[in-house]
């Protein structure tokens, strides 16, 4: 009798925790932050500029699957401008870089911690 109640509960909690884990690999999003359904981009300051400038040639998923510093984002933008006909971004550039480095910045949790001093090479 007990077991009949317990099994569905255990099953549901397994599904629930699997769903939570599956959700764990995106950028860390503050509670209340919305994702634009169509582009998959986080809706925050600069979102509409990024959508306008960065989804004309390729899927915005090239953005959402990346995690880079502001400097790296700028390098990618320069590379697209030099080789892929991306236009000058003008006043939008700093806003776009703020957005990219804030929401698609390097993932600190994905990095290994620094080596202990005794593991470092000797000079
Ligand atoms: C004029 C066309 C064009 C526009 C507009 C454009 N890109 Fe790209 N981008 C490209 C091309 C072409 C590639 C290479 C695509 C590929 O490898 O499939 C690319 C690749 C990328 C990559 C992957 C680079 C890599 O090394 O893996 C990222 C990230 C990216 N773009 C971000 C952006 C962002 C951010 C913007 C807005 C500022 C933007 N793109 C606007 C043409 C464009």
TrEMBL record:
SUPFAM superfamilies: Cytochrome c
Assigned keywords, A-Z: Signal
Highest rank taxon of the organism: Bacteria
A GO molecular-function annotation: electron transfer activity
Signal peptide: 1-22
Protein name: Cytochrome C
């Amino acid at each position: 009798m007990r077991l009949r109640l317990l099994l569905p509960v255990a099953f549901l909690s397994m599904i629930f925790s699997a769903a939570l884990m599956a959700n764990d690999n995106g950028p860390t999003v503050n509670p209340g932050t919305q994702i634009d359904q169509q582009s998959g981009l986080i809706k925050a300051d600069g979102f509409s500029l990024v959508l306008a400038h960065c989804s004309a040639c390729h899927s915005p998923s090239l953005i959402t699957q990346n995690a880079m510093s502001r400097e790296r984002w700028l390098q990618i933008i320069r590379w697209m401008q030099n080789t892929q006909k991306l236009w000058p971004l003008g006043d939008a550039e700093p806003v776009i870089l703020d957005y990219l480095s804030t929401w698609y910045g390097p993932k600190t949790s994905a990095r290994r911690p620094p080596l202990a001093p005794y593991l470092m090479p000797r000079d």
